[in-house]
Amino acid sequence: MPKKMILAAVAAAALSVHAAPVLARPATAVEAAAPVKINGARIDAALKAMVDSGRAVGVSALVWQDGQERYFGLAGMADREAGKPMRRDTLVQIFSMTKPVTGVALMQLWEQGKFGLDDPLSRYLPEFADMKVSDGKGGVRPASRPILIRDIMRHTAGFSYGGTATPADAAFSAADPLNLKNDLAEFGRRLATAPLLFDPGEQWSYSAAVDVQALLVEKLSGQPFESYVRAHILDPLGMKEAGWTQPDAVFARLAATYNKGPDGKLARQDDAETRRLNFDPSRRLTMGGAGLVAPIDEYARFSRMLLNGGELDGVRLLKPSTIRLMGTDHLDARVTERKWLPSKGTVGFGLDFAVRKSQPQTADENRGAVGEFFWDGRETTLFWVDPVNRLTAVFFVQTYPFDASLHRDFRAAVYGPNYLGPKGD
User: Fold this and answer.
1) Cross-strand partners of 325
2) Residue 176 buriedness (CB in 10 A; 0-12 / 13-18 / 19+)
3) Can the peptide bond before residue 2 be classed as cis, meaning omega within 30 degrees of 0?
4) Phi-psi category of residue 421: left, alpha or beta, with phi > 0 → left and psi -120 to 50 → alpha
5) What torsion do the CA atoms of 66, 67, 73, 77 make, to the nearest 10 degrees?
6) What is the C-alpha separation between 253 and 78, in angstroms, rounded?
């Protein structure tokens, strides 16, 4: 796969222009329906069917509810060609499920008063002052307002991720900010030279904004981003193996990536490509939007912390009110252009999370409860936090391109195929 396509995939919401959003009622205030009861046999069957159908080579899943593990299961192979089955300690590249970790890091600094959500980004990162917007014809014009920090947390800043034929995306690709030889400072300098896709606050568009969050964490904390996350999130939560930089000794435990070909069959990705993000000593870029590797139990510790309102096993990372803020829809109703976000269901977007706003509207929509917040990853990994049912779930797989049918089937197995949950506002 060409390098730029990989970066776009790795790297593959909004205030109105003049006013702050009115926040929806917190998820914990949603009136609960009958609590979900986990059916382990149903989940087992769903995981097995994913492998038997050829949509996945190996999968694992963990569900935690009411303070205890309710389900763990797996099916298939972590590395089919090497004959290695999926195991509980298998390491997985989680790609964009890195983004909520970055969001927690930045919101820790927000709690310390280091910045305000409606501060201009350029107050702290001056390279993003005087941003230009593409006119779609090869020209540019001044942005109508500054990028706010809130914008980089809900994908309304207007940044690109590359990968399309628009002039702004072409400029992003030419600047090559996500080249792994760049450090975060160089990433920021390069990104700032590319015009925005739209005026800040006008649209929702998935972008390199979470990598800007990582750069902001470095600027505000005075620490390298990876070191900050290790000291303030991973180590306090006991996530000893999770991280961007991995020793060669653990590569044998890393699940292989399987790419779906034109014939619909999954083919193993070359090890050299798999190693690039985590096992290459020449890598300088630690992305905020991707790059973490973790075993399923360790990522579940992160999701359990979120479910518990920012605390786990006596260690508090964020206040409960901050978790509620992150898991609340921040998109103004006038933000009608939301790219592919509606494919996730009837959702809005908070601070680094999609947020379910109403019951599933169709039989094909993912099952879940109003008030849940969640995100997923390039190779079809998924997690969500469901405060109504006091539940969090993590799903690991390494299938690319992203296969939404796996999420649909896993959620239906967790909740039951006809689950609607409580009504929203």
Assistant:
1) none
2) middle
3) no
4) left
5) 130
6) 8
> What one-letter code names the amino acid at 245?
T
**For tokens 């993003």, what's the residue?**
128
**Sign of dihedral through CA atoms 364, 368, 373, 376?**
negative
pLDDT bin (cut points 50, 70, 90) of residue 33 is low
SS3 207: coil
Hey, how many other C-beta atoms are within 10 angstroms of the C-beta on 72?
A: 17
Instruction: Name residue 181's amino acid.
Output: K
Indicate the helix (H) or strand (E) that contains 391. strand 391-397
CA distance 124 to 185: 12
Q: What is the reported pLDDT for 304?
A: 98
- At residue 134, φ and ψ (nearest 5 deg) are -65, 135
pLDDT digit string, tens, across residues 343-362 = 999 999 999 999 999 999 99
Q: How many CB atoms lie within 10 A of CB 22?
A: 9
Is pTM beyond 0.90 here?
A: yes
Name the residue among 160, 148, 254 with its Cα closest to residue 201.
148
Dihedral of CA 405/411/417/420: which sign?
negative
Give CA–CA dist 246/383, Å, rounded.
22
Q: What percent of the chain has pLDDT over 70?
A: 92
Print burial letters for 188-207: b (CB count within 10 Å at least 16), e (below 16).
Answer: bebbbebbbbbbbbbbbbbb
CB-based contacts of 28, cutoff 8 Å, min separation 6: 324, 371, 387
pLDDT at 8: 43
DSSP for 67-91? TEEEEEEEEEEEETTTTEEP-TT-E
Output the pLDDT for position 17. 31
Beta bridge partners of 91: 254, 295
Tokens of 131: 């941003």
Reading the block at residue 31, the tokens are 């009136």
Burial 228-240 (b: 16+ CB within 10 A, else e): bbbebbbeebebe
Contact by Cβ (8 Å): 130, 142: yes
404-to-153, 186, 364, 386, 397 alpha-carbon distances in Å: 24, 34, 11, 19, 12
DSSP-derived 3-state class of residue 151: helix
**Catalytic residue IDs:** 96
